[in-house]
Amino acid sequence: MPAQTMTLAKALNLSLRTALEDDPDVLVMGEDVGRLGGVFRVTDGLQKDFGEDRVMDSPLAESGIVGTAVGLALGGHRPVVEIQFDGFVFPAYDQIVTQLAKLHARSGGALRMPVVVRIPYGGGIGAVEHHSESPEALFAHVPGLKVVSPATPSDAYWMLGQAVRSDDPVIFFEPKRRYWDTGEVDPGATPPPLHRARVVRAGTDLTLAGYGPTVKLCREAAEAAAEDGRSVEVLDLRSLSPVDFDTVQASVERTHRLVVVHEAPVFFGAGAEIAARITTRCFYALEAPVLRVGGHHTPYPPARLEGHYLPDLDRVLAAVDDSLAY
Amino acid sequence: MTAPTADHASGATALTDALNAFADHRPEPQAVQLLRPDGTLTLPPEHIPGYGSELLRALYRDMRMARELDTEATALQRQGELGLWPPLLGQEAAQIGSAHALRPDDHVFPSYREHGVAWCRGVDPVDVVRLFRGVTNGGWDPRGSGFHLYTLVVGAHVLHATGYAMSLAKRGSDAVAVAYFGDGASSEGDVAEAFTFAAVHDAPVLFLCQNNQWAISEPVTRQTSSPLYRRAQGFGFPGVRVDGNDALAVHAVTRHALDHIRGGGGPFFVEAFTYRMGAHTTSDDPTRYRPPAELEQWRARDPLARLRAHLSATGLAEPAFFEETEERATELAHRVRHAVRTMPDPAPAGVFDHVHAEGHALVDEERRRFEEYERSFTDPERP
Ligand SMILES: Cc1ncc(C[n+]2csc(CCOP(=O)(O)OP(=O)(O)O)c2C)c(N)n1
Ligand SMILES: [Mg+2]
Q1: Dihedral (CA of B97, B102, B104, B110) sign
Q2: Helix residue spans in chain B (DSSP H)
Q3: Does A193 reside within a domain?
Q4: In Gene Ontology terms, what is one molecular function of this protein (chain B) (predicted)?
Q5: CA distances from A79 to A16, A110, B86 (A)
Q6: pLDDT recorded at residue B382
Q7: Does the pLDDT of residue B23 top 90, yes or no?
Q8: Domain contains A306
Q9: Which of A204, A261, B35, B127 has a 20 to 30 A CA-CA distance from B308?
């Protein structure tokens, strides 16, 4: 298949299609994933082409979706389940944390849990309550899980395929406000490993690290900073469990400054862990404390206020200024 | 179970008999209906509790108001004034009929589509619309109306209703808690757990399931392979299916259920068999999954048309009544439209309001820094 330009949602769709074609044990299930093709159309056309046996509309029960995925995986299948929105993963949280994450360890390695839990996440689409949240830290905190989030159509395509082939459970966070962003996907290319971070823009004065929906924001901030004569490096972390600290460390050793940007509340968030580890690894290279830009320690606000909650260009640039002022 | 006998052949028969004793041979009953789609009654009026011009007019008027609110809110969403709207079109009888059977001190736990119940409980429609405009995650104070906040997490509130009912019972009240939820919600673990708690605590809770045949794109057959009302039996309380497009029947059945609960009978399950005539929400496109013929079939069972036909045919309402109702509906639409168009956005620092009842040092600090940051955009001293 030649390289094509497509949306991030379409790239995920293509990746699922490829996975279903390549491995008869791969199953897709979730609420409205069949005939409707999912509320974001990520599974569009899959039930038509692969049948109701492999692309299943689930009953409206998230604990059931993940709990039966565990059983299907025990039976040798590779379920890729969809949680319709970030805020609705919590009925499944018990199954994910107490079962999915632990069965491999509990069985002394005898059992494997090749389950992918896809979760559209993050805000910025003017949605009602529970449809804009960023709960990734709640999963990265759980041993036994792997947590990733693509930022581009190409990564969406490759990372989902890698997640499906992984023998470990992967919580796959999809930046829903980027579903309609387009980019090139080249199914003939060789992708980087699933858990490798990437330098998306080289710079010398400061490193901005984001993932999922904030990578684009970090790139925009770097461009704006360049107009003021500041050379900002941008990292796409891509994976939160594990985090590719080597790539972050190498960047910080070049730039001496780090700002982490995510939509989730900064309190006990992914940025806190990165700040702690990078401070340990790069203590003598750092010219400023690691700073974080993210959500407040408040419930995700109603849509008309989300602009005051989400990190934006001004807030990222203010953090860049603060870091450079040290 | 009878102990199998030593004799082989008769032992097998005895076992089969013992097993067969558990089979359910009851024929499937028809949903309770009082008003046929053509507006005629299935029973003589004197057998229908509450039957009379006052009740019937009130039911019609409130269904008409609910439909008007729904139409107006849908239009406002199309015009960009609301972020989203979940229409109740087609479910007016299920909502208005049941709400009219409640007492003011009963307490309602809705999902997110119960705009008609909200109306009957005296919640200002502007407050309901406020939520879908995205200016609040709540909208009203449930303490006034006994109408709890909408719950967007499907099924979660059914447990809250059950707990509230347990609280009512402990306080010696004979008020009832009512949980409104959908056919899709019936699959959630929370709902099954609510049934269990209600049953073992004999809680005064009414489970009112609006089976509108769809959960977004999934037909009810993706949720259950037996009629929903029957689920109650397995948990140990009564379940009844009512024609959910017949306001009179919904009213009578709800009244019966409430009497049962108030009389100490424990929980009761009512399945209002109805239809979601609109999209799931304004973001949804039902043409992707729903056969148009199905909609047409249900359009012929429209809940407003049948009550109107009955009121007209019996002379229980004059043309003037319908004219006045139309006027009131138009007034409501105008009021809601005006209120939405002039509704201010909340203050930015509102993000930090009411996070905790007793304050929180980190939230307070973040608020201070946020306000400082906001000021930096207008501060003339800013470099
Ligand atoms: C826990 C949870 N999972 C998924 C959703 C997404 N969702 C919203 S409404 C809905 C369908 C609900 O169907 P039903 O209970 O029949 O109510 P109806 O919308 O028909 O009134 C779904 C899947 C949700 N809001 N909450
Ligand atoms: Mg439904």
Answers
A1: negative
A2: 8-20, 53-78, 92-99, 115-120, 125-133, 142-145, 156-170, 189-201, 231-235, 247-260, 292-299, 303-314, 319-341, 361-375
A3: no
A4: oxidoreductase activity
A5: 11, 19, 31
A6: 54
A7: no
A8: yes
A9: B127
What is the pLDDT averaged over residues B66-77? 98
Residues A172, A116 contacting (CB under 8 angstroms): yes
In chain A, the percentage of residues whose pLDDT exceeds 90 is 100
Q: What pLDDT does residue B378 have?
A: 85
- Tell me the average pLDDT across B246-265: 98
Share of chain B above pLDDT 70, in %: 97
Q: How confident is the model at residue B1 (pLDDT cuts 50, 70, 90)?
A: very low
Residue B356 scores a pLDDT above 60: yes
Q: What is residue B261's DSSP assignment? A: I
- The ligand that comes nearest to the alpha carbon of residue B217 is 1
Stated pTM of the model: 0.97
Instruction: Tell me the C-alpha distance between B315 and B312, whole Å.
Output: 5
Count up the domains in chain A and report the number. 2
- pLDDT value, residue B7: 59
Domain assignment present for residue A192? The answer is no
Calculate helix-pair angle for B189-201, B156-170, nearest 10 degrees: 10
pLDDT averaged over chain B?
95
Of all residues in chain A, the percent with pLDDT exceeding 70 is 100
Instruction: Mark whether A165 and A214 lie in a shared domain.
Output: no
Q: Between A and B, how many CB-CB pairs are < 8 A?
A: 112
> How many residues in total does chain A contain?
326
Do both A170 and A220 map to the same domain?
no
CATH number for the domain spanning A306: value is 3.40.50.920
3-state secondary structure of B272: strand
B157 a catalytic residue: no
- In the reported structure, the alpha carbon of residue B244 is separated from the centroid of ligand 1 by a whole-number distance in angstroms of 19
CA A115-A116-A120 angle, to 5 degrees, is: 155
Residues A158 and A202 in one domain: no
pLDDT digits (tens, 9 = 90+) for A217-236: 999 999 999 999 999 999 99
Q: Is B154 in the pocket of ligand 1 (CB under 6 A)?
A: yes
Q: Does residue A23 lie within any of the structural domains?
A: yes
Position B26 confidence tier, pLDDT thresholds 50, 70, 90 = confident
Q: Is the ipTM of this complex over 0.95?
A: yes
Q: Chain B within 8 Å of A129 (Cβ-Cβ)?
A: yes
Q: For residues A47 and A154, state if they share a domain.
A: yes
Residues ≥6 apart with Cβ < 8 Å to A185: A3, A4, A5, A6, A11, A14, A153, A154, A157
Cα separation, A87 vs B254, whole angstroms: 33
Q: Same structural domain for residues A144 and A24?
A: yes
Of A129, A156, A185, the one marking the end of a domain is A185
What's the domain range around A257?
Answer: 198-325
Q: Could you tell me which chain B residue has the CA closest to the CA of A94?
A: B189
Chain B: residue nearest A32 by CA?
Answer: B217
Task: Specify whether B255 is catalytic.
Answer: no
Q: Report how far apart the first and last C-alpha atoms of chain B are (Å, whole number).
A: 87
Based on the fold, state whether residues A46 and A176 are members of the same structural domain. yes
Residue where a domain stops, chosen among A140, A156, A185:
A185
- Are residue A29 and residue A100 in the same domain, yes or no? yes
